[in-house]
Amino acid sequence: MFDIGFSEFVVIGLVALIVIGPERLPRVARTAGALLGRFQRYVNDVKSEVRREMEVEDLKKFQSQLTEQVRDVEQTIHRELRSAEDVARATLTEASAPVEPPKPESLPEAPAATDSSIGPTDAENAAKPGTAQ
Fold first, then answer.
1. What is this structure's pTM?
2. Among 13, 5, 6, which Cα is nearest to 29's?
3. Which of 21, 34, 48, 116 is least buried, going by the fewest C-beta atoms within 10 A?
4. Domain ranges of the chain
5. For residue 49, what are the contacts with CB-CB under 8 A and spacing of at least 6?
6. Number of alpha carbons in the 13 Å side-chain half-sphere of residue 52
7. pLDDT tens, 14-26?
């Protein structure tokens, strides 16, 4: 705590012995030790309280950052859900729209079904006049 060497302690002790006297010196030393102990406990309490306050501030800062990130993720999820809902509604609207039958003039004409390999049957030939068998 203080940068005091052994020689300084000896000088302080001799001055105290001369000023206070040999009868009261032990009681004064005990009182000084007790006061020094209280002072050290007080300093340690203040240090620990400052450390706790710093930790609380750090935790509050972390909490606010985390809350902001959660809010951003939540907004992103809501945006994605809304866009997915819009796509689903558009698809549903498209699928449930009535289908109009095609107009007859827009249909291509189909060629007449004729098969040249199949000739008229014998009964058809016999029914026609002027055909020879």
1. 0.43
2. 13
3. 116
4. 8-95
5. none
6. 6
7. 888 888 888 888 8
